[in-house]
Amino acid sequence: MTTSTEPAAGPPQDRTQDTTQIRSLTVLPGHREDVELHTADGLTLVGELARPLAADGGPATPAATLVTLHPLPTHGGYMDSHVYRKAAWRLPALADLAVLRFNTRGTSSPRGTSDGAFDEGVGERFDVAAAIEYAEFHDLPRPWLVGWSFGTELALMHGRDPAIEGAILLSPPLHRATDADLDAWAEFGRPLVVLVPELDDYLRPDDARARFARVPQAEVIGVDGAKHLWVGEPAVRRALDEIVGHVLPGHAPLPTTWDGPSTTGTTSVAPTNGTDDDERGDALPDDEEA
């Protein structure tokens, strides 16, 4: 296990203590450490835990915890998918949140490769359980699941654990999760926040409202102009604002500047849009699900 206050995706390129405009690659102070999750079927999954930084340089107790579930690994999704990487770089400092990211079975990233092989969301039930168990055993308070695309399927199918406070879904395709899973979540009774991009490739706001109507406690939020991959800094800010606003009411919108030390991280993949704003997040063919 390694511990650092720097980004996991690469060394900082520069450091400043002036007022900083928070941009795509801005990394704010936090306590970040490599972690391993152990599943009930005997696999080791690699990940990272980012927590607020205490005055002594160690980890501070967060106000709440985000347990993140990444997009489809067979089409580029992994723990460093850009919304989650930016959450880990920013939210410990801006919102006093812990962010747990990990690669599901068979998934690789710069952090390493998790044991096992992709199982179409079936065997991944053990991965979700291991992440929730990790948060519980390490006294990470008030865990919320945050799923993105394929990760929303995992949350809906396997996330109904009494230890979690609720779930936030980004771009749910509802390909693997069925009406039976939605009915089970309705019975589970925990909050379900559903962020649906206006221009999503798989499920758009009106259809999402119809599908999630069977979950009385679900809040479906259409996000104007956004796409399935949450491309661009404005889309990422909206996603993070919604996550923080529901997990910690009254703490959003997040500030766009930071007074204090910060670093500039490096992306784990080459940018695909000709800017420094790495939005791989991840690239899927138009005819493939996420």
From TrEMBL:
Question: From what superkingdom does this record's organism come?
Answer: Bacteria
Where is this chain compositionally biased, Acidic residues type? 275-290
* Gene3D superfamilies, sorted: alpha/beta hydrolase (3.40.50.1820)
Signal peptide location? none
Q: Where is this region: Disordered?
A: 252-290
Question: What InterPro entries does this protein map onto?
Answer: AB_hydrolase_fold
Ranges annotated as biased composition (Low complexity): 255-268
Q: What is this protein called?
A: Alpha/beta hydrolase
What lineage does the source organism belong to? Bacteria, Bacillati, Actinomycetota, Actinomycetes, Micrococcales
